[in-house]
């Protein structure tokens, strides 16, 4: 099977995973479709399509939904409740990979689910692209570190703006709008570490 068919299958699977996870988180929060729509600013019909696996949300939509649910975006990619004795090992083949349909940035959830309060996300961000997360503080106190591996990124947190080069590490709370921009001529790669993110326990 060629790589394009495999990518298509992977995209279908991750869209279904996001849909199931969104439905489970909404149910756990006791929110109706209308209530989540009002809280997140995402339309009821869009939420319904996402939950049924019929629409792949953008990074901005995922951020709005996760903010309304009080979780990190990384938590939206977890497969479900962890077993009583979750595995401490996440094989690379089992790590969820998702491409933002708007910007093309790719994120891989690296950390094993349900084992640690720390979540790791490996991101490849295309040259010239921008993503703006305009939501601010969540119910949970979530902190994140961004560690640059390759390329360059401009990251704005509220009114503060930084340029990150390889080896640089930036600490932020998810309490203000965050904007990501790759001003370089090649894709950038960075690792995001989050703590305090709500996930399956």
How far the N terminus sits from the C terminus, by CA atoms, comes to: 37 Å
Which spans of ≥5 residues are poorly predicted at pLDDT below 50? 1-9
Work out the helicity level.
Answer: 25-40%
Q: How much of the polypeptide forms β-strand, as a percent range?
A: 25-35%
Helix-strand sequence: HHHHEEEEEEEEEE
Q: So how many helices?
A: 4
Q: Which value, in Å, is the CA radius of gyration?
A: 16 Å
Average pLDDT value?
A: 88
Largest sheet: 6 strands, antiparallel
The spatial strand order of the largest sheet comes to 1-2-3-10-5-8
Q: What is the general shape?
A: globular
Helix-strand makeup class: alpha+beta
Structure summary, number of beta strands: 10
Task: Based on the model shown, name its key terms.
single chain, disordered N terminus, 10 strands, four-stranded antiparallel sheet, 4 helices, 201 residues, alpha+beta, six-stranded antiparallel sheet
Give your account of this protein's structure.
The chain is α+β, with helices and mostly antiparallel strands. Helices cover 26% and strands 27% of the residues. It contains four helices and ten strands, in the order H-H-H-H-E-E-E-E-E-E-E-E-E-E. The strands form two sheets. A six-stranded antiparallel β-sheet has the order 1-2-3-10-5-8. A four-stranded antiparallel β-sheet has the order 4-9-6-7. The longest helix has 26 residues. It starts with a helix and ends in a 6-residue tail after the last strand. The N terminus is likely disordered.
């Amino acid at each position: 099977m060629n790589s394009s068919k495999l990518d298509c299958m992977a995209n279908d699977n991750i869209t279904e995973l996001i849909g199931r996870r969104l439905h489970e988180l909404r149910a756990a929060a006791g929110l109706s479709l209308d209530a989540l729509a009002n809280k997140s600013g995402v339309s009821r019909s869009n939420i319904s399509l996402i939950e049924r696996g019929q629409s792949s949300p953008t990074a901005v939509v995922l951020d709005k939904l996760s903010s309304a649910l009080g979780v990190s975006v990384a938590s939206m990619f977890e497969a479900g409740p962890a077993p009583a004795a979750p595995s401490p090992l996440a094989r690379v083949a089992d790590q969820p990979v998702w491409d933002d349909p708007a910007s093309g940035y790719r994120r891989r959830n690296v950390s094993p689910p349900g084992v640690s309060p720390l979540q790791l996300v490996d991101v490849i961000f295309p040259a010239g692209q921008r993503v703006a997360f305009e939501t601010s503080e969540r119910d949970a106190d979530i902190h994140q570190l961004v560690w640059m591996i390759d390329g360059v990124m401009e990251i704005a947190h509220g009114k503060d703006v930084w340029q990150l080069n390889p080896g640089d590490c930036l600490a932020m709370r998810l309490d203000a709008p965050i904007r990501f921009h790759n001003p370089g001529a090649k894709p950038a790669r960075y690792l995001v570490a989050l703590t305090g993110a709500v996930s399956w326990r």
